[in-house]
Design goal:
By secondary structure, the chain is mainly β. It has three helices and 21 strands. The strands form four sheets. It has a six-stranded antiparallel beta sheet, with no helix packed on it. A six-stranded mixed beta barrel has the order 13-14-19-15-18-17.
Length: 227
């Protein structure tokens, strides 16, 4: 097992790797880097961009320094454990499961997990690259927003979204998670992803404030340990 110390940069998980500042992004099927990147003992030559967008451009939108993105094509080769409050990312083989374990579904390499939203069993995409979580707008239709939050999407730029508090549970003790809904320009895209993956939400690091998380693509399990 190897442990990387990461930085919480505006809700993004950034790992210094050599001269690189790499975003750990379980919501991206692919990785990219402008230069060869050594990760967990292997040197990778990766695409410099994804659909014309570079890591540097994403960093500029996010207001953080980054020049590489590590997605599920590399992360899925090993088990990972994110210990958010310890600022630690453990990577290895056969990492032990946490206290709450469930089956992992995989969509284009991206982890899909079971979650209870307002007492209803649903599925969600686990996306460490999303500093704000997002929910199917039908689940908050007609409700008064909690407030607003600024966010960005690489192909659209920055935008402001209304946010809603939704009870979210992995065990018998639910927590309130703040969710946004995407603007119309992105809602069709998200709706298609949610439909194809059978999910009702995209959940970012908010749960990691309460749980350590272990993901094993090989065993097809995802597990959580309450902190």
């Amino acid at each position: 097992m190897q442990t990387f110390e990461f930085r919480n940069e505006r809700g993004h998980l950034i790992v210094p790797i050599g001269d690189h500042m790499a975003l750990i992004d379980t919501g991206s099927p692919s990785s990219m880097s402008c230069n060869p990147l050594e990760f967990f003992g292997t040197v990778y030559t990766l695409p410099a961009s994804i659909m014309g967008v570079t890591p540097q451009e994403i960093g500029e939108l996010a207001g953080i320094q980054m020049d590489a993105l590590i997605g599920c094509d590399l992360l899925s080769q090993h088990d990972i454990r994110i210990r958010w409050k310890d600022h630690a990312l453990d990577i290895g083989d056969q990492l032990p499961d946490g206290q709450i374990t469930s089956n992992l579904r995989i969509f284009m390499g991206i982890p899909i997990f079971s979650v209870c939203l307002r007492g209803n069993n649903m599925s969600a995409i686990f996306d460490t690259g999303a500093h704000l979580s997002y929910i199917d707008p039908q689940l908050v239709s007609g409700e008064v927003p909690l407030g607003e939050c600024d966010d960005f999407y690489p192909f659209v730029g920055r935008f402001t979204t209304p946010t809603y508090l939704v009870s979210t549970a992995l065990d018998e003790n639910p927590i309130d998670v703040e969710y946004g809904i995407l603007p119309d320009a992105l809602q069709v895209m998200l709706g298609m992803v949610l439909l194809l993956s059978g999910s009702s939400a995209v959940i970012g690091p908010q749960l990691l404030n309460h749980f350590d998380c272990t993901v094993s693509w090989a065993r097809e399990t995802i597990s959580w340990t309450r902190k």
